[in-house]
Amino acid sequence: MDDCTAPGPGEHVISWAYPSSPRAVALGFPGAGCYVLRVHGEDPHGYDLYATCVAVVGALGTNPGRWSMDHPAHAKYLPAAAI
How many domains does the chain have? Predict the structure, then answer.
């Protein structure tokens, strides 16, 4: 089954894994949840801060995929503290 939210070549997707969700548990954040960074062709990584994800993708030079939290179409939904 294809994952329609998976990043394409040269893309990343930043999303949120809720506490106790299978993804948060698998990434080592079962109690607090985490931001999930998925880069095309790589395993996902969990981070406790959104700003850390943004810094990592800035260093990688990838573009946000359509469903990424940092995609320009989603900026209005981010809290001011996260930008």
Answer: 1
**pLDDT tens digits for range 19-57:** 999 999 999 999 999 999 999 999 999 999 999 999 999
Short-list 57, 78, 68, 73, CA closest to 14: 68
35, 49 Cβ separation under 8 angstroms: yes
Q: How far apart are CA 48 and CA 32, in angstroms?
A: 8
Of 20, 19, 26, which is closest to residue 43 (Cα–Cα)? 26
Strand 11-17 relative to strand 63-64, pairing: parallel
Residue 32 in domain? yes
User: How many angstroms separate the Cα of 16 from the Cα of each of 22, 48, 53?
Assistant: 12, 10, 11
pTM of the model: 0.88
- What is the domain extent for residue 70? 11-82
